[in-house]
Amino acid sequence: MANVLQNIAKVPELKNRVLFSLAMLAIYRIGVFVTVPGVDRHVMADYMNTQGGGLMGLIDLFSGGALQQVSIFALGIMPYISASIILQLLTVVVPAVERLNKEGEAGRRRINQFTRYGCVILSLIQGTALAIWLEGMNTAAMGGVVQNGGWGFRVLCVLSLTTGTTFIMWLGEQITERGIGNGISLVIYAGIVAGLPSAVRQTWELVRNGQIAVPVLLLIAVLVVVVIAVIVYFESAQRRILVQYAKRTVNRQTVAAANSYLPLKVNSAGVIPPIFASSILMFPATVANFFPDASFMVGVVNALSPGRILYNAMYVALIVFFCYFYTAVTFNSVDIADNLRKGGGAVVGVRAGNDTAQYIDRVLSRITFGGALYISSVCVLPTLLQSNFNVPFYYGGTSLLIVVGVAMDTAKQIESHLISRSYESFGGERGPRIRGRRTDEV
After folding, report:
1. In principle, which of 4, 180, 284, 393 could form an S-S bond with 17, CB 3.0–4.6 Å?
2. Do residues 439 and 361 both lie within one domain?
3. What is the pTM of this model?
4. Is residue 199, in this structure, part of any structural domain at all?
5. Largest Cα–Cα distance of the chain, in whole Å?
């Protein structure tokens, strides 16, 4: 690790990018403690500590603890993610948006602009629901979160929450453009990691009070290590398709025939599917806040609480859907097959052109199914143990997947910067690098 830090310092551009990302994340963590005007965050903290499990605990997890602080960042980055889901679905359903997506960089900028507008609209809706919910807590026996309710508080609360979410969106985009790693993923990553110390302390208190037995604690520790190992294994796993290049002439020089590989990741979608799925499953809670007296909506929210059978079933279904959907959006097999044909390459035993595209699609569909099952297992199975033994959310499969997956992606980007500038990569000159694990060859 010391060698890695030294090598980063030797590359001015990379060092500036890393420092910029850290500075943006530090600003985000400071903003988590800026409370919405007119609320008592101590009352809210007491409520979250006593009744903040289930759906509220999940929302607080993705907001980095901002909900417990009733912060201006309480909505987190979820409105932006929801807007991204809507725009990506529209690229498949609406021809005009699909054409816009194919216009290159200019079209993507337009879509990003629409995503920002959608984020603001969803923030206004969710902010209004949260303000109404906070006012409804004034009838609780523990006291009121809102000091002076009414439309004045609602307007101020909605403006504060919308501004906070918009600022987080801007931070994430700045990290992606001028820093290192994916900014939105790093924002969620920073929120989860910041809550780990308190989760460890909470777990230790549960052990001291006898609510968690020592053997159960050891089982949880072993499970966390196993889940991390499984995540690292599958995030590095690849299916490599053998590609053969014929003898060809490049710049008046004859290049001999050679073999190469087309790597297909088992999990091409990364941490996007569980994040998207969680964002969608949080939507009923937002709607329920507008109808606090409707028993039907209360029943729906209770049924969709983390750990319930319906929640787990819908969670798995959405994860599988977004694994295939996001892979189809980001990976175009027709373009890959066309580029192979133009470069003089061909998959062994498969005709060039349309047959190659169909073959790649078939292989990608099979390994994506395995990747979807892996993500579903990691996200759901630890949650079952967590709900049965009252373990904090931070040890759940979803949080571990996000933390490990984002850390690996960021590390790969840092390594690519080092390699491109002829510096040794992680582990030293002869040490292991972060590379894909070969699961099969054709």
Report:
1. 180
2. yes
3. 0.78
4. no
5. 84
Residue 230 and residue 165 in one domain:
no
Pairing relationship of beta strands 437-441 and 237-245 according to DSSP bridges = parallel
**Distance (Å, rounded) from C-alpha 187 to C-alpha 80?**
12
Distance (Å, whole) CA 78 – CA 127: 12
* Segment-wise mean pLDDT, segments of 10 residues, the chain, 442 residues: 71 87 93 89 79 67 82 89 85 82 81 91 90 73 71 91 94 91 89 82 80 80 85 88 74 65 86 84 70 66 74 88 86 84 81 87 91 88 66 68 87 81 51 49 40
Q: Can you give the C-alpha Rg of the chain in angstroms?
A: 24
The residue range of the domain holding 361 is 212-442
Q: Say if residue 150 is in the same domain as residue 96.
A: yes
Q: What pLDDT shows up at residue 372?
A: 92
Any domain includes 41 = yes
> Which pLDDT score is estimated for 294?
61
What total number of domains does the chain contain? 2
SS3 401: helix
Chain centroid offset of residue 289 CA: 25
Q: Which helix (H) or strand (E) holds 248?
A: strand 248-250
Residues 154 and 245 in one domain: no
Same domain? For 144 and 279 the reply is: no
Q: Are residues 294 and 419 in the same domain?
A: yes
Tell me phi and psi for residue 149, to 5 degrees: -80, -170
Of 166, 194, 222, which closes a domain?
194
**Element counts in the chain: helices (H) and strands (E):** 18, 6
The helix or strand, by DSSP H or E, that contains position 89, with its residue range, turns out to be helix 78-93
Return the closest-CA partner of residue 167 out of 31, 305, 328, 6: 31
Residue 204 lies inside a defined structural domain of this protein: no
Q: What tokens does 162 get?
A: 């919308």
**In a shared domain, residues 71 and 183:** yes
Determine the angle formed by the axes of helices 183-194 and 12-31, rounding to 10 degrees. 60
3-state secondary structure (DSSP) of residue 246: coil
Is residue 348 classed exposed, middle or buried when 0-12, 13-18 and 19+ CB atoms within 10 A define those classes?
Answer: exposed
Pairing relation of β-strands 248-250 and 253-255? antiparallel
- pLDDT attached to residue 325: 87
pLDDT at residue 253, rounded to an integer: 61
Which CATH number do you get for residue 174?
1.10.3370.10
Query: Quick one: which of 38, 246, 242 has its CA closest to 130?
Result: 38
What is the rounded CA–CA span in Å between residue 132 and residue 149?
Answer: 9
Helix (H) or strand (E) holding 185: helix 183-194
For residues 126 and 189, membership in a common domain is answered with yes
Does 205 map to a domain? no
